[in-house]
Design brief:
Helices cover 8% and strands 48% of the residues. The chain is mainly β and 130 residues long. It is elongated.
Length: 130
């Protein structure tokens, strides 16, 4: 009887833990820099963490910038035929992915535009996540 009572008391821990939902699973998006523009796919998705992997297919090195709302991240220079990765948690809004160069160009590259909607679902029900 005493062992049962001790076991029950041990199961009633004194600490109170909140069961907060985990953030959404990071969304993997891909981008390409060409001689004319920057393209990213997908262009529209819900707010949350993203990992942008971008490939430079131009013959010049470029600095890649993700900019919008309260976010501004930059990586580079990214050499020709090389890749770079940017990680960010994006809030709803409009963002641009730009490619800049240290050398003068005839016309700047057209940026990719991302439309970020309402937050994605949390990942609390997902298994096999870190």
């Amino acid at each position: 009887m005493l062992a049962t009572v001790a076991l029950l008391l041990a199961g009633c821990g004194g600490e109170d833990f909140e069961n907060k939902p985990r953030p959404a699973v990071p969304l993997q998006i891909a981008g390409v820099v060409t001689t004319e523009r920057v393209t990213v796919s997908p262009k529209a998705f819900g707010a949350g963490p993203v990992v942008l992997t971008i490939s430079n297919q131009d013959e010049r090195s470029h600095t890649i910038t993700l900019e919008g709302e309260s976010t501004r991240q930059r990586v580079g220079p990214v050499n020709p035929l090389d890749t770079a990765t940017l990680q960010a948690t994006l809030a709803p809004g409009r963002y641009e992915v730009k490619a800049g160069s240290d050398t003068a160009v005839k016309k700047p590259l057209s940026p990719a535009v991302l439309e970020i909607g309402p937050p994605r679902d949390d990942s609390s029900d997902e298994v096999l996540l870190p």
